[in-house]
Amino acid sequence: MPQASSSAAPERYMISVDGLRLLIEALRARGRRVVAPVVADGAIIYDDIDSLELPRGVTDEQEAGRYKLAQRGDDAYFGYAVGPHSWKKFLHKPALRLWRAERKGDEVTVEAGRIEPQNYAFLGVRACELKAIAIQDRVLMGGDYVDPHYKAQRDGAFIVAVNCGKAGGTCFCVSMEAGPKVTQGFDLALTELISQAAHEFLVEVGSPAGAELLAELPRRPATREDTGAAQAVVEHTAASMGRHMPQEDVPALLMRNLQHPRWQEVAQRCLSCANCTMVCPTCFCTTVEDHNDLAGVESSRTRRWDSCFTMDYSYIHGGSVRPTVLSRYRQWMTHKLATWHEQFGTYGCVGCGRCITWCPVGIDITEETQAIAASEKA
Amino acid sequence: METRKPRLAVWKFASCDGCQLSLLDCEDELLAIAGAVQIAYFPEATRGEVRGVYDLSLVEGSITTPHDVERIHEVRRRSKTLVSIGACATAGGIQALRNFADVREYMSLVYAHPEYIRTLETSTAISENVHVDFELRGCPINKSQLIDVVSAFLAGRRPNTPTHSVCIQCKLKGNVCVMVAKATPCLGPVTHEGCGALCPSYDRGCYGCFGPKETPNAPSLSGWFASMGMDSKALQRIYRTFNAHAEPFRKESERHDAQDRKG
Ligand code: SF4
Ligand code: SF4
Ligand code: SF4
Ligand code: SF4
């Protein structure tokens, strides 16, 4: 549904906190499953909401291998960075059944896995996440082979994006040119503006469906002051990134350093636990598992997320192609930052920082890249 | 045409019976199992004993006595496929804590007449004594994995028992990592999946019930635990549970033991 923004003057409006609630309720009234950030289990995750159940006045403190919720001291609804979940969970499901077969006498019937479009509306999608969705669109439905499961959830998903008002401690979207300002791929985009006088959201329209929905909400046109304030929000966020990539041709840097001693060093710390690939919003790899019942009457094939950190991932006749943790860490990092270009024409990383925060031993993709870059300068 | 049903046997060595009971606990599937195989030897479930050769032997328990050693060789001779089930059978179990101690001293403390006791110095995994075709991990095993192993055997396919970390399962479930978000030490990153990330799903760190995963890196995880405030005594202990004798855990606990003694 989201389309490239037209060249006509952008439409900008202001809605109140109540307007945000009405927006959620209008999406619900259209039969949509609204998914948004909510506080659960000590983190901000993505889950279904019915009304304004967003985290209020909550923020997150993120560092390599550490995540903590804290109070902000205001009533902001979007005053945090991205958490452990990503929208991949809904579009490219962690596990699903591909088919099931049943034998009746000599007859075998095969039934394809059911595809049930959920009619999603995603609320609170950040710039890096929009970029990640665009990257997965390219991978999973942009070539000759289209993943029908992904496409069924992706087509028609309504996206309410949010411009980030706070950079997380592990964010580096600026280095990856993926944020913090949302530019395309949304139906509506919000910027939260809190002042002494008011708590409002500047709304930008990104699609006809977005315009149609906004027309239902109480709103006023944005003033120049409002637009200026919204711009200041993203500028401030852009200036306070927690992390940076070296300012050079990173793909070339990594590809000419495939034998660098730093890989050895990081392999000493890496647990090959695969958390980084699981939380990464662009990692798309899956594996399949076959099942059968004891009576030999029913069988099925399921699919689930896999990771290049497992031994099974590169298993071919005779063993794993990447038996060492060094080779697996290098595969992951060079895929994200270098070989993805050859494969899909973009980076495979949007600088969301999840792999840094959620690595149980705090391994940092920016620090690893910086270390290799610095060694060339020494 | 009626084909002969594969004959299944369940054998017990030093163990608590918990893994065998997981099989009995498969209420819904038990009839299907009984329909698919001939249960030829299963002391927990039946008294009828059948001699001869077994197509599939499930072996529970570890080897702790000279008699066990003889018997496991006999079981191996009678079994076409031998699958060891549970932490005792795959790693020596909790009773392998004796491997770190002086068994004779223990015996004199525990038994009035230690001279009647015939035991080995160590508790070992089945695979350390005879060839094992497949190992099903866990303390206790996961019953759906057990059913999967039996159905895989019947269909001639590979069982779905991935050897990767508990973390992958934890993430598939959408759990928030207890290590990162709660600073709760968790063995998930070095532990073999199989439990469905049970403990992290209930806000606890993983205890390592399924033993070391493929290519585990315990020293790195221990280093992180130490930075969270664990001392070498505590570090030694977390690796000395049901899978204490599994090599990566054994080496790691011994490393911290040595450090602790040095002080
Ligand atoms: S590689 Fe890391 S920072 Fe980059 S998109 Fe993936 S999780 Fe985010
Ligand atoms: S980094 Fe690994 S898991 Fe992620 S997309 Fe690349 S190969 Fe797949
Ligand atoms: S980099 Fe971190 S999260 Fe990724 S596999 Fe290694 S230890 Fe796990
Ligand atoms: S809670 Fe434990 S098992 Fe789950 S991801 Fe974190 S470290 Fe891994």
What does this structure look like?
The complex is a heterodimer of chains A (about 375) and B (about 260). With about 375 residues, chain A is of the alpha+beta class. Chain A is built from twelve helices and 16 strands. Chain A has helices at about 15-30, 90, 125-140, 150-155, 210-215, 225-240, 250-255, 260-270, 275-280, 325-345, 355, 365-375; strands spanning about 10-15, 35-40, 45-50, 60-65, 65-70, 95-105, 105-110, 120-125, 160, 190-195, 200-205, 220, 285-290, 300-305, 315, 320. In chain A, strand 13 (about 285-290) and strand 14 form a beta hairpin. Chain A is globular, with a radius of gyration of 22 Å. By secondary structure, chain B is of the alpha/beta class. Chain B folds into two domains: about 5-155, 3-Layer(aba) Sandwich (Rossmann fold); about 165-260, no CATH class. The mean pLDDT of chain B is about 95. At the A-B interface, strand 5, helix 9, strand 13 and strand 14 of A face helix 2, helix 6, helix 7, helix 8 and helix 10 of B. One iron/sulfur cluster binds near residues 271, 272, 273, 274 and 361 of chain A.
